[in-house]
Amino acid sequence: MATHLMTANEAKTRFGEALLMSQREPVHITKHGKSVAVLLATEDFVATEELKLELLKLRAEQARQEIAAGETVDGEAFFTELLQGGND
Question: 19 with 39: CB under 8 angstroms?
Answer without folding.
Answer: yes
